[in-house]
Specification:
This protein has 149 residues and is an all-alpha fold. Helices cover 55% and strands 0% of the residues. It is elongated.
Length: 149
């Protein structure tokens, strides 16, 4: 019996898609990118042609300025690429529990962090003797010789 028949070839990796696959390849992207220069050429021509000037001065043209702004096309068409790019990152944990050793190490790190924060708080509290120069000479200190109650 031939064992080579039972070995399966690895599945080919999904092809790495480039931003151009979302920004230029779809028909609507080509239409949008082609309409953008036409729009702005028309706007430039509106300075010389009165009917175009009347249209480009309208409120509708103001909204179309936003639609035909190149960065708007880039952002909207780039959504698909951004979603594909983010989908390549690993998902959250699969729900397996941590080992006891890992839990103990995490607890040690948190304890060390809590001690460091307590030391930081003590070194910046003017009412705490551990703050050194902040506490010495502080008129609010209980050791101040001329403290008034």
């Amino acid at each position: 019996m031939n064992n080579a028949a039972h070995i399966q070839a690895p599945e080919p990796a999904s092809p790495r898609l480039k931003p151009a696959d979302w920004l230029w390849r779809p028909w609507y992207a080509k239409l949008w990118w082609s309409a953008i220069p036409v729009w702005w050429i028309g706007m430039a021509a509106s300075t010389r042609i009165a009917p175009l000037e009347a249209f480009y001065d309208s409120a509708a043209a103001g909204f179309l300025n936003v639609l035909f702004f190149p960065m708007m096309a880039l952002m909207v068409l780039g959504i698909g690429y951004a979603q594909h790019w983010l989908a390549q990152f690993p998902k959250q944990g699969d729900g397996t529990s941590l080992s006891d050793e890992t839990v103990a190490r995490i607890a040690d790190v948190w304890e060390e962090h809590d001690r460091a924060m307590e030391d930081l708080h003590a070194s910046s509290d003017i009412l705490d003797p551990r703050s050194g120069a902040l506490w010495i000479g502080n008129p609010l200190s209980s050791h101040w010789p001329h403290k008034r109650l």
